Amino acid sequence: MEGERAAGAVSGETFTCRDRLLQHLLLPVRPAPLAAALKSLLRVRRRVRATPHGRFLVDPATIFALQLARGGVYEPALVRVLEERLPAGGTFVDLGANEGYFAVLGARRVGPTGRVVAVEPQARLAPLIRANLELNGVTWARVVEAAVAESAGTRPLFLTASTNTGASSFFRGTRYHLPTVEVRTLTLGALLEESGVEEVDLLKVDVEGAELSILEGARQLLASGRIRALTLDVHATTLAARELDPERPRRLLREAGYRVERGGGVDVWVRGA
Q1: Residue by residue, what is the 3-state secondary structure of 31-99?
Q2: Cβ atoms < 10 Å from Cβ of 48
Q3: What span, in angstroms and rounded, lies between the C-alpha atoms of 230 and 244?
């Protein structure tokens, strides 16, 4: 792929014995904020680590780093979806970009003639996403510091510990206190308009329980067919805790003309009969 050539060969240090020791010692610690405090005491810092899909500035004592250290790939089933669904020159929109791993992979797939929009509401992660894009020679991705929801405005976001930033959510899933921060929200349609995107080859939705809100606010957009395919991570437990039907997101997609293709552990929703 042109984008992969632009990013260059993967080089640099892989995960070290010290990285694995920190994962072994810190990740089992509960509650998670205590593990984060111990990281601070131990002066654990991010380091550039090489993976088969690029170079990333990684905090070794995180769930993300643990998966990379074990198998070299984070969420391999989803990686395969990107490889199968994203053409050169295509468009990838990542809702819940976290540290930018899939934004990098998507950018390398579509290449410099394609487009990537990485959406992440956590201000602590936006500079990291940009750093990881830069590490991989990606200049054609846009980072949006916001959350997609059913309407525009602001909402409080619960911030989980640094061992698993990907679990931050609009809905508190822990018994212990979590800090909150106000984040900007916009609809999926407004996001595409703001980003100058007409059609999307693949939309990734992993938003820790806010997926129903996103789909509710994007019914007309989904019915228009402008999004060719999407992956949807349904957080059934979070929805049920809010007394919402966990099957509702899937029904909305079917009503909008999508059908599900199951393969490799990830459901891909595509337009069609």
Answers
A1: CHHHHHHHHHHCCCCCEEEEECCEEEEECCCCHHHHHHHHHCCCCHHHHHHHHHHCCCCCEEEEECCCC
A2: 14
A3: 22
Closest CA to 269 of 246, 243, 251: 251
Structural domains in the chain, sorted by start:
10-74 (no CATH), 75-271 (3.40.50.150)
Which amino acid, 17? C
pLDDT one-digit tens code per residue, 201-251? 999 999 998 999 999 999 999 999 999 999 999 988 888 888 889 999 999
Give SS3 for 239: helix
Q: What does the alpha-carbon distance between residue 112 and residue 6 come to, in Å, rounded to a whole number?
A: 8
- Backbone conformation region of residue 234, classed left if phi is above 0, alpha if psi is from -120 to 50, else beta: beta
Report how far residue 51's alpha carbon sits from residue 10's, in angstroms, rounded to the nearest whole number.
Answer: 7
From the list 222, 189, 202, the residue with the least C-alpha distance to 266 is 202
Whether the CB-CB separation of 34 and 40 falls below 8 Å is answered with no
Rg (CA), the chain: 18
For the record, the structure tokens of 183 come out as 């984040």
**How far is the CA of 182 from the CAs of 27, 146, 162, 214, in angstroms?**
28, 10, 18, 18
**How many beta carbons lie within 10 A of that of residue 58, not counting itself?**
23
Q: Say how many Å lie between the first and final Cα of the chain, rounded.
A: 31
Alpha helices (runs of H) in 86-210, residue ranges in sequence order:
101-110, 126-135, 188-195
Question: Is the pTM here over 0.85, yes or no?
Answer: yes
| Span 18-50, pLDDT tens digits | 999 999 999 999 999 999 999 999 999 999 999
Distance CA 209, CA 248 (A): 12
| CA-wise closest residue to 148 among 119, 111, 124 | 119
